[in-house]
From TrEMBL:
Subunit text: Homodimer.
SUPFAM superfamilies: D-ribose-5-phosphate isomerase (RpiA), lid domain, NagB/RpiA/CoA transferase-like
Keywords of this entry: Isomerase
EC number in record: 5.3.1.6
CDD domains (UniProt xref): RPI_A
NCBIfam families (alphabetical): PRK00702.1, rpiA
Binding locations of substrate: 25-28, 80-83, 93-96, 120
Name of the protein described by the UniProt record: Ribose-5-phosphate isomerase A
Transmembrane segments: none
GO molecular function: ribose-5-phosphate isomerase activity
Keyword Isomerase listed: yes
UniProt source species: Sporolactobacillus shoreicorticis
UniProt function note: Catalyzes the reversible conversion of ribose-5-phosphate to ribulose 5-phosphate.
Length: 223
């Protein structure tokens, strides 16, 4: 077992029969979905709302019942991964490119739980490159602006050498900041920048973080 598996399995214990559950994206969420699929196979009733095409594909393969976000009135709890988490439960997400749909699903959720391994715990956010989702039209001008600000943006590429395209058909600029002194102010700046659709700063957007360790034990941080 690794830390991701421990956290993913532990999060499945939080799910109650009849819930509508936001399903995050990534390699840690994979283990949560695996545990959820076992519950469903044993007769557990639930509805999932996915945050990416990758998660829809996995859920379909594992016969987890799904609805689109527009088809549910509310989500009881969302379980998602994160790339970095600080002690105030603020985080960076979007390493897998799913930040926009993840933020939409998180905002529609009554409760949010993040599942991570211990490597994701940080003193200060920013060593992980901050993903910024931008519209392809004129993206070079947004890149130039962010460069001038000293944010060291880098266009994300896919394995085929083409720009990485998100599920919502946007590009991603990863900001190589090293550390973020004032996350609120940076989030506010990015929120108001024309051409930016969303960014990976998730501030005050989770109530619980489950940290998994290689020996299988977990630690929970709560607000
Ligand atoms: O866009 C991807 C998501 O924000 C993921 O939840 C995040 O990148 C963590 O992924 P993983 O669990 O694979 O490290």
């Amino acid at each position: 077992m690794d830390g991701k598996q421990a956290a993913g399995r532990r999060a499945a214990d939080e799910i109650k029969d009849g819930m509508t559950i936001g399903l995050g994206t990534g390699s840690t969420v994979y283990y949560f979905l695996e545990a959820l699929a076992k519950k469903v196979a044993n007769g557990f009733k639930m509805t999932g709302v996915a945050t990416s095409q990758k998660t829809i594909d996995l859920a379909n393969e594992w016969k987890i019942p799904m609805h689109a976000l527009n088809d549910v009135a509310k989500i009881d709890v969302t379980v998602d991964g994160a790339d970095e988490v600080d002690s105030k439960l603020n985080g960076i997400k979007g390493g897998g490119g799913a930040l926009l749909y993840e933020k939409l699903v998180a905002k529609a959720s009554a409760r949010r739980i993040w599942i991570v391994d211990a490597s994701k715990k940080v003193e200060q956010l920013g060593a992980f490159p901050l993903p910024v989702e931008v519209v392809p039209f004129g993206w070079k001008h947004v890149h130039a602006y962010l460069s001038e600000k000293g944010y060291r943006p880098e266009l994300r590429y896919a394995a085929d050498g083409q720009p990485y395209v998100t599920d919502a058909h946007h590009y991603i600029l990863d900001l190589h900041l090293q550390s973020i002194a004032n996350a609120e102010s940076l989030a506010n700046e990015l929120d108001h920048l024309t051409g930016v659709v969303e960014h990976g700063l998730f501030l005050g957007m989770t109530e619980k973080v489950i940290i998994g360790y290689p020996d299988g034990h977990t630690e929970t941080l709560e607000k």
